[in-house]
């Protein structure tokens, strides 16, 4: 299938606050203004376009980021420095822990709009 995800829209109450939450955790450059969006380009060519939502209710999305081990350690350190809540599981049962599933490590954190952000060091996908 010769199609690759190019970009997607992430609804938020404050597009730059939401985009910065992610870029600051990742140690990535500032989000870029692009039309009505605050854009966050990712390593694999996908861009997350944060958009201020016209609706008061934002439907939570799940965004999972595959990162190398060193970056995972840096991201986790930033989360812990900020004393942010995080979980080893998507159901928020194992608080302030990481998991060692899928031959790697991972954890979940909610962004300011309730989107479920996951950082993991090894993809779920196996051959
Ligand atoms: Fe996931």
From TrEMBL:
Top-level taxon of the source organism: Bacteria
Residues of the signal peptide: none
Domain VOC: 4-122
Gene3D superfamilies tied to this protein: 2,3-Dihydroxybiphenyl 1,2-Dioxygenase, domain 1
Annotated protein name in UniProt: VOC family protein
Organism, scientific name: Streptomyces flavidovirens
């Amino acid at each position: 299938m010769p199609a690759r995800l190019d970009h997607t829209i992430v609804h938020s109450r404050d597009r730059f606050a939401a985009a910065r939450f992610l870029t600051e955790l990742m140690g990535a450059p500032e989000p870029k203004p692009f039309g009505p969006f605050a854009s966050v380009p990712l390593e694999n060519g996908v861009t997350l376009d944060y958009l201020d939502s016209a609706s008061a209710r934002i439907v939570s999305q799940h965004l999972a980021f595959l990162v190398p081990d060193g970056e995972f350690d840096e991201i986790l350190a930033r989360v812990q420095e900020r004393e942010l809540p995080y979980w080893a599981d998507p159901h928020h049962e194992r608080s302030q822990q990481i998991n060692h599933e899928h031959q790697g490590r991972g954890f979940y954190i909610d962004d300011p709009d309730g989107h479920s952000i996951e950082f993991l060091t090894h993809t779920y996908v196996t051959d």
